[in-house]
Amino acid sequence: MRPSAEFRPPVLRLALVFVPMGMLAAVMLGLAVEPALPGGGERPPAGPPTLRAFTGATILPVSGPPVPDGVLVVQGGRILAVGPRASVVVPAGAEVIDCPGKVILPGLICTHSHIGSPSGGDASSPLQPETRVLDAIDIRDTSLAKARAGGLTTVNIMPGSGHLVSGQTLYLKLRPGRTVEELAIKNADGTLAGGLKMANGTNSIRDAPFPGTRGKSAALVRQEFLKARDHQRKIAAAGEDASKLPDRNLGLETLVEVLDGRRVVHHHTHRADDILTVLRLKEEFGFKVVLHHVADAWKVADEIAAAGVGCSIINLDSPGGKLEVRDIDWKNGAELVRRGVVTAVHTDDPITDSRWMLRSAALSVRGGMSREKALESVTLAGARLLGLEDSTGSLEPGKDADFVLLSGDPLSIYSRVLETWVEGQKVFDLARPDDRLMAEGGPGAGHARLGSTCCFSR
Amino acid sequence: MKTDLFLFFLLAAAAPAQLAVKVRTLHPMTGDLAPLRDAVVLCGPDGKIQRVGPAAEVPVPDGWRVVEAEVAVPGLIDARTTVGLSGVLNWDRRDQEQLETSTPMQPELRASDAYNGRDPLVQWLRELGVTTIHTGHAPGALVSGQTMILKTDRASIVSKQDMLSPLAGISVTLGADGFGKEDKKPPGTRAKSVALLRAELIKAREYSAKLQLADAAKHPDRDLHLEALAAVLRKEVPLFITADRHHDIAAALRLQQEFGFRLVLDSAAEAYHLLDALKASGVPVIVHPTMARASGEQENLKFTLAAELHRAGIPFAFQSGYEAYVPKIRVVLFEAAMAAAHGLPPEQALAACTIRAAEILGLQDRLGSLAPGKDADLALYDGDPLETATHCLGVIIDGRLVSTEKR
Questions:
Q1: Best of B95, B326, B407 to mutate (most A CBs within 10 Å, chain A)
Q2: Cys-Cys link to B226, which of A406, B90, B207, B359 (CB 3.0-4.6 A)?
Q3: Which residue among B121, B291, B299 places its CB closest to the CB of A318?
């Protein structure tokens, strides 16, 4: 039976009336009409790069002192100029966006995130360096849109901490895009940028075949790196003679990248002695490592500083939840920074929501860190830990135009993220209803596709 | 006159004292919630507030000890938590006492029998300014057990005097979070949950009726389970019904209409769909933590819910709720702050973890605002309490300085 017109949804009726004939023909012929890109932006139009000038805001470049009444000039995806109004000329033809009373901060960089429902290794073994989050990330998961709403522009997406080695991480720009590759950050050689996630302590101590003790955990890791060193030697010995190369081994190849210094280890670790175990392994095998979470950092801050490693820390609203986090303290960041350790604050989303990232930085201020260092901890420090400081993390000419427009002081609870820009494209705008839904929650914000029964009023 | 020296001096004498609190900005949380500048609060030796007013009008009597603070608010009230039951270490059968799942309905479980007042998380809340907690059995079973109200400085519960209310209410969970924890354990659907609960309330009503019979020989044997539900039906204690999906909230309202019990709605993530019905019912809401994770039954929560409840004139308070992992406990002050960042006027945010919480818990005559005769519970801060980087510098419970930690 043909449904009566009265019960046809209004949107459909409008579509039947107003859709241009060409598009209607395309739909009737079954041709795809390009949907809006995840991330809300549009593909850059062909032709000369867009020129925009953001004027009148207080600009916090992080790499330098605050600029009241500043001007930020963006050309295409890059920053052309930044500075006080008196010294920065707004180029002719630039679209001028006046933002008096607002604050502009570099796009936030989260060095430890699980947005996009990533996964790495399964329950079959404790070391699975061959697995890649690349093969698991759902870039249409609402957690990415929510991260953009929080002002994030760059993320290190990691598998979990239930393995000694849980897999390869991936660095993403939260630019608009339809595939994970379009969001991925590329190394100079064209490979996708990322690190290797490792863990010690109780998360990776499980029933067999997983280790049952800390001693066994370290022994398994040491044994695997020795194998990788062997693999590395065989590859070197083969030289130009491909017939002498060892059999391919995806796991060992990944560990060889680590031994070669081409892939940084992102190491989950909490308890003071576990932190020192990581530092010993680093010393023994000479890999690059960033310590993650580091609940007991304040107890061994001298040792961390002496080892010259960076820290990516988390701030929680309370200690505990497990024994290892019993002594976590908001002073961790201040104690590390005081000793010259490059320190980033991360979200570990969903442990803390990406939308609260600036609040996490403010908790470090509560724990004694300076405001300047706190802002650096969610921007430039993160870029350094990911090796991306040449292209993002601060507002400087030549860097990617990754920035956040805020209603006020970034460290005040009352300030809101108004807009997020990645490489000159606006990926979040609080004024857009769909974006606001991601910023504040509500019917449909929980899951983009489950639909649920919640959404009648939307 | 160094404040720190005074604090040190006071610590030496922890007994209730004649204590004067001098404050640059005082939030008494009375009347229109307006703050007082340069105010004094006199806390008497009986642990009650003697006077509150501008420093110019309230002289500090000779011999009284003085504590100075930039900002002071009434001691914070966490309107629904499981702290003391869900311990800091998160170890099953060692410090996790908030949920027993052998059967779906256990209203006879008392909170005081499960509470560890020395758990570090109780201290954590106290040192951040939380002086009163409504704690007990967690959401997560159809009827998980009882709740109680007490101050955060009571390390041991020896007698009823150690609590403000030994039986504050009974915790009910509707929706998927209240389903049986293992396969085939009832309830497994929403309809079954409500059917089980209705049958049990009817049983309790019959039990109650038999107790009224003139012939004592016909009285039923004592039944702790039905006794607890009978107290609900007699409106002596409320049901705290945790419901997040809008249709579970509607089911809670239907149950309330059928049985006439006092209902306090807990969590209520999708309450924004039912503002009119909630307003008409007069049911207060202990809203979910603003920063609760948007997943599962709460996947469609809104950070603006508190602001929407406020605009609709629906009474509400903040809670820390229950957390299964890290952070193991939330802090109502932080949740209130995030609501203030999302449209709730700051003074209303403070009210929702002080006087409004006291009203919903029925303790507004003793707690929640700073006025003569009320409990001398205060939290002292070095700035706007809602700002993340502000510190709590002192906490006073019943006129005693119980913390001088900088938090």
A1: B326
A2: B207
A3: B121
The pLDDT tens digits of the residues spanning A346-396 come to 999 999 999 999 999 999 999 999 999 999 999 999 999 999 999 999 999
Tokens matching residue B92: 């099953």
Mutate to test the interface with B, among A413, A449, A458 (most CBs of B within 10 A): A413
What tokens appear for B244 in the block? 């997040």
User: What are the residue ranges spanned by the domains of chain B?
Assistant: 3-75+371-403, 76-360
Please tell me if residue B92 touches chain A, with a CB cutoff of 8 Å: no
Question: B120 and A323: CB-CB below 8 Å?
Answer: no
Using the beta-carbon criterion (under 8 Å), do B300 and A444 form an inter-chain contact?
yes
| Look-up of token digits 């090796």 | A387
Tokens of A6: 């009265």
**Length reported for chain B:** 407
In degrees rounded to 5, what are phi and psi of residue A390?
A: -80, -20
C-alpha distance from residue A71 to each of A379, A394, A429 (Å): 20, 15, 20
Return the structure tokens found at A279.
């530092």
B277 close to B250: Cβ distance less than 8 angstroms: yes
Give the CATH architecture of domain B3-75+371-403.
Answer: Roll (2.30)
Q: Is ipTM strictly over 0.90?
A: yes
Interface membership of B288 toward A (CB under 8 Å): no
CATH architecture for residues A108-395: Alpha-Beta Barrel (3.20)
CB of B126 within 8 Å of a chain A CB? The answer is no
pLDDT at B187: 96
Q: Where are the domains of chain A?
A: 5-42, 108-395
